[in-house]
Amino acid sequence: MVHTVTRPAAGGPAAAPVAPGAPSSIGARLDRMPITPTHRSVTAVIGVGLLFDTFENNLSGTIAKVLQDDFAFGATELKLVLASAFIGQFIGSLVLGKVADRYGRRRAFLINLAIYSGFSLLGAFSPNAVWLIATRFLAGVGIGAEQSLSDCYLSDVLPAKKRGRFIAWAYTLAFCGVPAVGFAALWLVPLTPLGIDGWRWLFVIGALGSAVVWVLRRRLIESPRWLAAVGREEEADALVSRMEAEVPGGAAPAPALDAAAGTESAAAGPATRLRDIFQPHLRRRTVMLWIFCSLSTVGYYGFGTLAPQILSAKGYGIVAGIGFTAVCFLGYPVGSALTVPIIDRFERKKLVAASAASMVVAGLGFSFAGSPALIMVFGFVYTVCSNIFSNVSHVYLAEQYPTAIRAAASGAAYSLSKLSAAALPFVLLPVLQSYGPGALFAVIAAVMAALAATVLSLGERTTGASVDRAPAG
User: Fold this and answer.
1) What one-character-per-residue DSSP string does 105-160 give?
2) What's residue 363's pLDDT?
């Protein structure tokens, strides 16, 4: 026997009875809910965790020249150091996405941060290149699913009309980690606190910070959508009821959902297995996302990872290069903050294409800039544009697949971005070394143009729609 509950709208008549455990009713109740203290709390906790993800992703590139001098790296060792964390992230995205769909988002969060924190701390004690490459790889396994898990979790919990804005707030907090690593490197690299090389302290900071986040994330609620999807209906209903009770008046208003925000239709054959991403109702999304994720890192990480190398090619020394990079990196949180007022007002795929085009223009300006002032201006503009691009991309990726496979399917697509990021030093460094910054950004421009064309031609409209909407046929 299925029990039903009646939830009166604040100041209005009783809503229609709903089965508390039905996945569609859980999703509908979440989507029509206003923002509650729980929404704000989980957004903040996820954002702090993402901060250490961005810290990690930019760490090796920021101090690459220091490591090269300290360990007397050759060209091959340098490429492996830059690539190792991304190769680990490729594996982590695949494995931990499946863990999240099978055992829960919260448990996967705790596993990934524990792995990252431990191996990042071990990396601080690297006596040689082999140890450093190995620990960067294993730390990458831990941090690999951080962004895709965060995107899926917030998409599960946040209401449809506010989803983009609050994910953008989480990433605005997160991207403070990029200038943080830049300025921390600028401060610590010339020093030897307690007789220990300054760059080693950067690994310690990342490890200890993520350990604090692990403690905070133990208090996260599980995704109600995931609980309902795996048959834990009473738990899902209890969590949603608790969130509804946080609304002034004691219950969430219940306006009718629009047609685009409907539940997954049985006729469309909602996917419940990972291999169903290749079925007709999801195949177009999968093709678009796999191409998109493979190409996106060329523009995004191509700058963040190689900026010190580009400045070295322009003739600037290590400390000056790190200083310029740190100023350029201030654009990351600024660009993310600029996303907040626009991400839910414009269609996602159009914002992706527009921000990609802006990155091309700013990147070419950076490559040909001949003075420190112009280098920092164009670098700052590039990172502003790239983080508008990044925020919209993360939201768009998390809106594509049904709850039952959202983390694993999104993680599979996202893992390709890590694989292509790992290949970047082997592809782009030779272009930079042989032909200079202009040729490097010409390659990046061509790739970003292909990305924009793919998203505009194959991507679907998702702004304001429920993540439980029926897939297009």
Assistant:
1) HHHHHHHHHHHHHHHHHHHTT--SHHHHHHHHHHHHHHHTTHHHHHHHHHHHHS-G
2) 87
Q: Looking at residue 124, what DSSP letter applies?
A: T
Q: Give the pLDDT of residue 24.
A: 56
Q: Measured at the alpha carbon of residue 291, what is the angle toward residues 285 and 293, in degrees to the nearest 5?
A: 95
State how far Cα 295 lies from the chain centre.
Answer: 15
Alpha-carbon separation of residue 6 from 12, 19, 24, 243, 398 (angstroms): 13, 9, 16, 16, 31
36-237+276-458 maps to CATH 1.20.1250.20: yes
| Residue among 156, 146, 144 nearest 222 (CA) | 156
CA distance 415 to 91: 7
**Cα–Cα distance measured from residue 322 to residue 318, given in angstroms and rounded to the nearest whole number:** 6
CA distance 192 to 30: 51
- Eight-class DSSP state of 10: T
DSSP structure class, residue 145: T
CA dist 397 and 167 (Å) reads 12
Name the residue type at position 217: R
Distance in angstroms (rounded) separating the CA atoms of residues 41 and 212: 16
Write out the H or E segment, with its range, that includes residue 74. Answer: none
Whether 191 contacts 198, CB under 8 Å: yes
**Does the pLDDT at position 397 exceed 80?**
yes
With b for 16 or more beta-carbon neighbours within 10 A and e for fewer, the 277-300 pattern comes to beeebbeebbebbbbbbbbbbbbb
Q: Where are the domains of the chain?
A: 36-237+276-458
Question: 317: Cβ–Cβ under 8 A, 6 or more apart, which residues?
Answer: none
Both tokens of residue 226?
Answer: 């995931």
CA distance 221 to 214: 14
Digit-coded pLDDT (tens) for 83-102:
888 889 899 898 888 899 88
Nearest Cα neighbor of 78 from 117, 118, 136 is 136
Q: What is the DSSP string of 235-252?
A: HHHHHHHHHHTTSTTSS-
pLDDT exceeds cutoff 60 at 174: yes
Q: Yes or no: say if 208 and 88 are a contact pair by the CB < 8 Å rule.
A: no
User: How far, in Å, CA of 361 to CA of 378, rounded?
Assistant: 9
- Residues 99/108, Cβ–Cβ less than 8 Å: yes
Query: What is the model's pTM?
Result: 0.76
In angstroms, the Cα distances linking 71 to 66, 215, 260, 419, 424 are 9, 35, 56, 25, 22
Distance of alpha carbon 6 from alpha carbon 20, whole angstroms: 10
DSSP symbol at 4: -
